[in-house]
Amino acid sequence: MQEDGQDAVRGFVPTPAKIIDHMVSRLFRGRPPEPSDNLLDPGCGTGVFLAGVIRWCRETGRALPQMVGIESEPGRAREARAQFCSTDGIQIRHGDFLTGAIEPFDFVIGNPPYVSIYSLSEEEKRGYRVAYETARGRFDLYLLFFERALKCLKPGGRMVFITPEKFLYVETASPLRRLLERVQIEEIEFVDEESFDGLVTYPTITTIANRPPSGATLVRMRDGTQRSCRLDGGGSWMPIIRGGSAERSSGGTLRDICLRVSCGVATGADDVFVRRADTLEPELAAFALPTIAGRELTKPGEIRSHSAYVMLVPYTKEGSLLAERDLGPLGRYLSRKRERLTQRTCTRRKPWYAFHETPPLPEVLRPKILCKDITEKPYFWIDREGSLVPRHSVYYIVPADAGLIERLCDYLNSPEAGRWLAEHCQRAANGFLRLQSNILKEMPIPDGLARSRRRKSASRRQLQFPELADSERLAVR
Fold this sequence. Notes:
Layout: H1 6-9, H2 17-27, E1 38-41, H3 48-60, E2 66-71, H4 74-84, E3 90-94, E4 105-110, H5 122-131, H6 141-151, E5 153-164, H7 174-180, E6 184-190, E7 203-209, E8 217-220, E9 226-229, H8 238-241, E10 258-263, H9 270-273, E11 274-276, E12 288-292, E13 309-312, H10 329-335, H11 338-341, H12 361-364, E14 368-372, E15 374-375, E16 380-383, E17 389-390, E18 394-399, H13 405-412, H14 415-424, E19 426-427, E20 433-434, H15 437-441, H16 447-464, H17 470-476
Parallel strand pairs: 1-2, 1-4, 2-3, 4-5, 6-8, 12-17
Antiparallel strand pairs: 5-7, 6-7, 8-9, 10-18, 11-13, 12-13, 14-16, 14-18, 15-20, 19-20
């Protein structure tokens, strides 16, 4: 889990004692430890999970197993050693669980560090990608902790981890889900999102036995309901967990019928490039395009083709960055903001006045469908004229066939699509959904939309290749 401050940069947040005691009870349920057993906390911090094991053993009259805690931060490792210096059978190691040698264990328990790929050095990322199956895409360290813990768990051993729920559905965690389908996932419990002392998180407690899968997984939801289900495959498990099906529609996905499904334009300095339209100097009007942010998408229905805000764009309509000498009045305006603009990381590789990401204007300035990036309930709007430039708090969907835009938007606003998004999207604060392009692209579409797209493509091909035989044209259809 994460919090503000230096510790959170490397993923350390203490786990509340109530959760620790609950996890320890799950770890030893039906199989209490023996003195000859060994137990690991792979990211032990100051030793709170090891202390939880001691509490459980004292309360139940059981002998302690041999215990090992591994901690990479030297200060916390020293604190843990000091705490257990008078307790036999506890060893605290200062080291990196992901790179150091490790022996097999009967039990593993812990709260792996939650560290985004963006907090890792290039050298770290390269090393992890070589060593771990789960180090794919924009991976997080907790995925790698899962993999390493599974590999050091003895046959018949048990592990209990508390992690973000995202591993159940995000594409990045697909390799981990394929690893987990080889073992028995005994239980997945969705924990209250405010369990971590005021931090809004979406944690799950996962209990795993290292044996071939032989039964269903018990899933406990946050609302108190529970169900048993079989979890397998690398696709999202959330449809199965919620009682649906993980099978995809035969009609294809949103990516199949769209030119682009993407987050809006990121300038890296909206305070410079985005201005109120009614205060814009006349000489800058030639560089201004109407723009829209997520906070302006409020009421269902139509959206206006004009906006209260404009984006000053130092690019041609074809998406090429203007030469500095051709910026004219825009160049003079931006020069006054040069110190602010050069603070952006993108200027290490781009001219000082470029956007953080090069805007694909030929696709942006088309009829398109818009939605907010974070929302309580997804809703989609049509920009019919294609004149609005979505900012980074808006996602935009550009159908390859503009004639499908009405039907596609109706489908995206349907209860069926809403259920699919609720099952596959990440969670933000207060239960809101976080929409992302990689999730939207995989949304199944009705067969009718896919057939319309295929017919359109076939018709274009007939015009391009009139010599095709009738039979071949039928095959194209």
